[in-house]
Amino acid sequence: MRILVFGGDGFCGWPTALHLSSAGHDVTIVDNLSRRDIDIKLGVQSLTPIATMEERVAAWKEVTGKTIKFVLLDIAREADRLCQLIENSQPDAVVHFAEQRAAPYSMRGSAEKRYTVDNNISGTHNLLVAITHHAPNTHLVHLGTMGVYGYSGAGFSIPEGYLDVEVRDDAGQPQSREILFPTKPGSVYHMTKSLDQLLFQFYAQNDQLKITDLHQGIVWGTQTDETNMDSRLINRFDYDGEYGTVLNRFLVEAAIGHPLTVHGTGGQTRAFINIRDTVRCIELAINAPPEPGSKVKILNQVAETLTVIDLANLVAGRTGAKIAHVANPRAEATENDLVVSNATFRALGLDPILLDSTLLERTIALSQKHRERVNSAMIPAQSAWNSQRQQELNAHDLAAELTA
Ligand code: NAD
Ligand code: USQ
């Protein structure tokens, strides 16, 4: 298949592009390299030394003989070029990772809130318009998030995207409807993914586009079989307070002897998936497109759910790291239950990697190998969700909490 990977320079996009190329697909990466620019602005770098995009694709060619093309393009701001690209390449599938994906960065201040909404909503809409007008048979596979659902268990497993409801009509008779699961985003970033869902619903219905939306949990780990093939293919690994996700942060914190930064009690339950399963799931989703004219296919891309404190105890148990309960900069439930259905991926053949695997050890070893690249001043999470959380953060002596 001819596949365009939008956001293919990023943490999920790069290993996915390699995996799809390795499977024999004709892959083109499209990226504006904004994630690298944000690192420069924040004064932080990936834990792992990532090569430039030119070096990456040259190394892939050298190691495997396979070609991955690269197009430098901003999908939010260069809509005409995007239309031309879609028209000229007539892809069988596009994978859409190209959004600002960090919740803390999206809550950092007014500029970051506006940037996240402008970038994510314009980018997604421009892509839908380009496909509609220039290659309407293309299958769009988008990376959504578990966070569109909110994280409350409500006593039942979170279904895959839709909820069956029954309402009484004006005559008092029961009427059944299938609706999008009501969204409850917990950050500006998560809100953009909720808005993306409505864009998808409209274009699937109005233009019969084939759309799959993958509601993914928090990704952990970093390397895949393909990124392991050469040091120039290494994947990015974020650990800082803005972009680092919780388990990867704990693994880096443990590697440098920093206490594990549990927000509040750590009773927050979240869904997790290993990066190796991310790339497998995307391949499975590409191979199982919805029929034209059917509703958006929504799949939950998760392996398991755990609480933050369970994760911290797991990492502390393996490494001897200390646990610090720090003030929570986020406005989120202190504790929640979360049960998620991942029935479709299981039916498609996914046997998910769970946390107690040897991959956890390998990620710890990778963190230790690159520990000299860590700037520990960038570890504390500092983007407060609202003024009350900001006051609570200000009232805490974070350094003292971390060394207590
Ligand atoms: P990332 O920031 O590492 O990668 C995103 C890539 O998109 C970057 O290379 C960036 O330069 C590019 N990009 C952003 N805006 C663009 C634009 N306007 N034009 C062109 N390129 C643009 O993020 P990631 O962790 O790889 O996440 C990829 C997708 O998966 C995101 O949409 C994210 O919401 C979703 N997701 C990620 C996780 C996770 O834990 N990392 C979990 C669930 C869902
Ligand atoms: N947390 C800590 N300590 C830390 C960092 C985080 O306790 O040092 C807590 C947070 O308060 C939160 C939980 O861990 O309760 C998860 O935070 P996270 O930063 O790992 O994940 P999140 O902000 O939800 O975002 C990440 C990705 C995002 C993706 C989402 C999937 O950045 O792109 O959409 O995971 S999900 O969480 O399932 O919505």
Protein architecture, described:
The radius of gyration is 21 Å and the shape is globular. Helix content is 39%, strand content 18%. It has a seven-stranded parallel sheet with strand order 3-2-1-4-5-8-12, sandwiched between helices. It has a three-stranded mixed sheet with strand order 9-11-13. Strands 6-7 form a two-stranded antiparallel ribbon. The protein has 404 residues and is of the alpha/beta class. Helix 1 links the parallel strand 1 and strand 2. It starts with a strand and ends with a helix. It has 14 helices and 14 strands. It binds nicotinamide-adenine-dinucleotide and sulfoquinovose-uridine-C1,5'-diphosphate. Nicotinamide-adenine-dinucleotide binds next to helix 2, helix 6, strand 5 and strand 9. Sulfoquinovose-uridine-C1,5'-diphosphate binds next to helix 8, strand 10 and strand 11.
Key words describing this protein structure:
alpha/beta; 39% helix; single chain; binds nicotinamide-adenine-dinucleotide; 404 residues; globular; 3-stranded mixed sheet; 14 helices; 7-stranded parallel sheet; binds sulfoquinovose-uridine-C1,5'-diphosphate
